[in-house]
Amino acid sequence: MSELFVPVIYGSVRTERQGIKAARFVVRELEGRGIRTELIDPKERKLPLLDCMYKEYPPGQAPTVLEDLAAIFRSADGFAIVSGEYNHGIPPALKNLLDHFLEEYFWRPAAIVCYSGGRFGGVRAAMQLRMTLAELGMVTIPSLFPIPHVQNAFDDEGTPAQAYTGESFKPFLDEFLWYANALREARRVGVPES
Predict the structure, then answer these.
(1) What is the pLDDT of residue 1?
(2) pLDDT grade, residue 31 (50/70/90)?
(3) Among 7, 20, 126, 134, which residue is least crowded by beta carbons within 10 Å?
């Protein structure tokens, strides 16, 4: 069986964004487990504000960025979503990115990595994100990985400042990879009709 493919979807486009360090950490941890991954950064992709969902464009007429993302998402075995907390909610760039697609997410697990500049680690946004991901057809794993004080938690390349960050990520990743493997096998056998 081929290796798993898990895109890491990051959600901030702010100039001084700190969560990109957490996203880089997640990419490194996945790669360290032999998982194929790709960082999906809305700041680099420059997605349009949602007007039409990808599926609403006539065939071959969607913007190139949406065609590219649709292909990536269709080939994914699961998603790691890295979300900050903006005013107790998820970043608008993340919501905009997610809302462009639908069927591409179906029957795939999602791991939520949340962060904030304060001590709560983005868990309030993660609760909103869990509802959104469910509506998009993803199965969120039971655990969250909250990162408080994200500005101090990693260096620019995503190396944790404290060893316990990497150590505590291991069981979280184990849980997610279990779901990714189980749901990949279930999709191979077949999924319920919508």
Answers:
(1) 59
(2) very high
(3) 134
